[in-house]
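In response to reviewer comment 3 from the previous cycle, which asked for concrete evidence that the modeling workflow produces usable outputs, we include below a single protein chain processed end to end. The sequence was submitted unchanged, and the resulting structure tokens are shown without manual editing.
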Amino acid sequence: MTKPYISVVIPVHNEKEVLETLYERLTKVMDDLGKPYEIILTNDGSTDGSDKILDDFYKRRPKEFRIIHFNSNYGQHMAIMAGFERVRGEIILTMDADLQNPPEEIPKLIAAIEEGHDVVNTHRLNRKDKKWRLLVSKLHNKLRRFIAPKLTMEDEGCMLRAYKRNIIDLISSSGEASTFITALAHVYAANPTEVGIKHEERKAGTSSYNFFKLIHYNFDLVANFSLLPLQIFTIIGLSVSFFSIIFVIYLFIRRLLIGPEAQGVFTLFAIAFFIMGLIIMGLGIMGEYVGRIYQETLKRPRFIIRDIKEQENN
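The workflow returned the following structure tokens.
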């Protein structure tokens, strides 16, 4: 069996309506490149029959296709990690199955890698997403630039990317329970670059990312790559404590000069509730970090594979 030069890793979760189009467009692009390749599709606990379609792809082209079936839904990044742990190529690409990032852009990324870059990040040109997703993405990128300024990417959420094999090996060996692939690759990169790619409207199916998953996605970024939230909360806590002491001294002097009074009760309640809110928020932030430390200490498998369809590597 010829060793592939290019590996394409794609997570799949309930995408049966677009899979056949993905197969046709992606195989045409890869065949036209004229280089040996493999396509690894990870079925991330699909319940719509996507698993059977993926198995059919393997039957059609067993030399190029490898199918990984999870026993449950572990999320996009874990599905990509499962592919990373099994890639055979020297250039590794990731992309989503929804075809919003067209496979026809792949040669552009391959060319950038062959020019000497070890990571090729991308940003979406003229995005076709819904307004609320554009807003969330814009806020997310601003948040990333604020808490992790070293992650110099214009569009961290675009998954059509290319990596050299050594970067993928480093990511796979990290062993983190919560792995933020795009940011981690950028940290490991010695010579990254970024290119603009086309973006298309979703033709069929629905996105697996809802508002709450996007919030969790942002928590992963914050907790994995920055201590800034804890540092900000520490500064706020010190500031509130300082002004609280000043206020207590003021009330004590006022009591000595004027005597007991019932005025200002609601102000005191407002201040007390404000401080309690800060404490609860701080506990939540600390809980995010402590929870991730706890997950790392458990050493549980990040995902469980139910089945793999592939030819033996001779």
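Residues 265-298 form the longest helix (34 residues). We consider this sufficient to address the reviewer's concern, and the full set will be provided in the supplementary archive.
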